[in-house]
């Protein structure tokens, strides 16, 4: 699948790979230009009280850039917001609009902020701000300081981690590569393992436990998504066309195995 420029906008370093790793691998392989905007530094993503948020932010910055380099992502920007710090959607939207106008992506990929029972404030605010930014970036009187004539409109938005998918990407050929991406995020494997150990004693390292847990999640969700359309392993997305200040409600049909 080829698109001229695809802009992934997500809350934390690791969200893009864990949710969309298969899509990113396929896009880059087919010659699409992929860019990242991570909206928080992930500095509070740990159960370890002895690691400072400042130090963790440095670790997570390097983890994300390592994964991006492996994938062939063209640019990576991490906004200097702390995670779980109640970012104001209005201000984040303004930051994202400026970047969309500069990059002019054909497609924006972000969190589904409308997923029922989605509790994480960073996922909600990032998904909402990114969708609104994608829709309103071509309006010249909205944040005119970053507008230039001739800015293209975003054509489509894909929402990941959704309960209402209408597009399934076949990742059967690239699932092992997606799982391999987990090795770029030891800090997050370790913290997931530490949480598991709180629930159930285990002699293995935190990394091994967390890595197994994430690998299991990726295999299980991709198998479940694939069952709907007869694909062995799939990533599920909600896809919308962007139209004049709205998502196009006519694009509701299911699009199998794109
Ligand atoms: Zn996240």
- What structural class do you assign from the helix and strand content? alpha/beta
Main pleated sheet: 8 strands, mixed
Radius of gyration: 18 Å
Shape: globular
Total helices: the number is: 7
Topology-level CATH name: Rossmann fold
CATH class: Alpha Beta
CATH superfamily: LmbE-like
- SSE arrangement, N to C: EHEHEHEHEEHHHEE
Distinct ligand kinds: zinc ion
pLDDT under 50 segments (min length 5)? none
Q: What would you note in describing this structure?
A:
The protein is of the alpha/beta class and 258 residues long. The protein has a single domain, classed as LmbE-like (Rossmann fold, 3-Layer(aba) Sandwich), CATH 3.40.50. Strands 1, 2, 3, 4, 5, 6, 7 and 8 form an eight-stranded mixed beta sheet that branches. The structure holds zinc ion. Zinc ion (ZN) binds next to loops. The site of zinc ion has 4 residues, from loops.
Any descriptors?
258 residues; Rossmann fold; 7 helices; 8 strands; globular; binds zinc ion
Task: Furnish the topology, listing elements before pairings.
Layout: E1 5-10, H1 15-29, E2 33-38, H2 53-71, E3 75-78, H3 89-103, E4 107-111, H4 121-136, E5 156-160, E6 167-170, H5 175-180, H6 186-199, H7 206-229, E7 234-243, E8 246-247
Parallel strand pairs: 1-2, 1-4, 2-3, 4-5
Antiparallel strand pairs: 5-7, 6-7, 7-8
Helix pairs in contact: 3-4, 6-7
The structure holds zinc ion.
Residues 11-12, 15, 123 line the site of zinc ion.
């Amino acid at each position: 699948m080829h698109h001229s420029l695809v802009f992934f906008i997500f809350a934390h370093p690791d969200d893009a790979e864990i949710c969309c790793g298969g899509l990113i691998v396929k896009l880059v392989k087919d010659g699409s230009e992929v860019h990242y905007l991570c909206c928080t530094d992930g500095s509070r993503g740990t159960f370890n009280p002895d690691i400072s948020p400042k130090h963790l932010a440095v670790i997570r910055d390097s983890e994300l850039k390592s994964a991006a380099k492996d994938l062939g992502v063209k640019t990576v920007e991490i906004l200097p917001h702390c995670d779980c710090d109640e970012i104001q959607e209005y201000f984040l939207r303004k930051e994202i609009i400026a970047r969309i106008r500069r990059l002019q992506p054909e497609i924006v990929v972000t969190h589904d902020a409308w997923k029922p029972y989605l509790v994480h404030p960073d996922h909600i605010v990032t998904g909402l701000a990114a969708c609104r930014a994608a829709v309103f970036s071509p309006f010249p009187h909205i944040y005119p300081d970053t507008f230039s004539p001739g800015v293209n409109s975003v054509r489509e938005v894909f929402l990941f981690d959704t309960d209402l998918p209408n597009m399934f990407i076949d990742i059967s050929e690239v699932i092992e590569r997606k799982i391999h991406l987990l090795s770029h995020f030891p800090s997050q494997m370790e913290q997931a393992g530490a949480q598991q150990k709180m629930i159930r004693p285990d002699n293995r390292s935190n990394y091994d436990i967390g890595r197994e847990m994430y690998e299991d999640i990726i295999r299980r969700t991709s198998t479940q998504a694939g069952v709907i359309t007869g694909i062995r392993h799939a990533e599920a997305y909600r896809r919308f066309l962007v139209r004049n200040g709205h998502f196009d409600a006519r694009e509701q049909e299911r699009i199998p195995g794109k």
